[in-house]
Amino acid sequence: MKQEFTITVYTENQIGLLNRIAIIFSRRKINIDSMNTSPSEIENIHRFTILIDETEEVVRKVCRQIEKQVEVLKVYFNTNDEVVWQEMALYKVSTDEVAEKVKVERLLRECGARVVAIRKDFTVFETTGHREETDRLIKELEPFGLIEFVRSARIAIIKESHGFHEKLKEFEQKEPGEEVIENEFLNQQQEVFSM
Q: What is the domain range of residue 117?
């Protein structure tokens, strides 16, 4: 049975990786509902948050494919119950409509919207929440002349996660890397660099 899954991918920040991950989905004819990339809690490690509507079996296969990419460190997938998530939305409406109609102002307060820009011809509001909440405000604003609407990609935190940096520490303890010897031949400059 298909359901929404949030896929979290921890990666090194490499050019072209986003394209290779997107190709994994397009080859399988899987539509990405939203994708967000951002820095993670670990320096130089990025986090992709991908939302898809698929069966668990398909999601498992896709995650295994993504994890095969050299720059990918770890991939997790979770249902909506297993993550805390939000999306941000911006709404542009006529300033005259907002100023004249007290109902719009009350509606925006009830939805927790805040003003981010006021101009003579338009006002922009912002809300954060689940998709149903941002969709509800679209329907409510349409009669008052909704000029423009945009919603961000999902951002999510895994409820049962202790942070990816803990996993990295565990990995380092199990399989420590070789000690790096810097400037190994520095004291032999004449012999090494002479022609």
A: 84-151
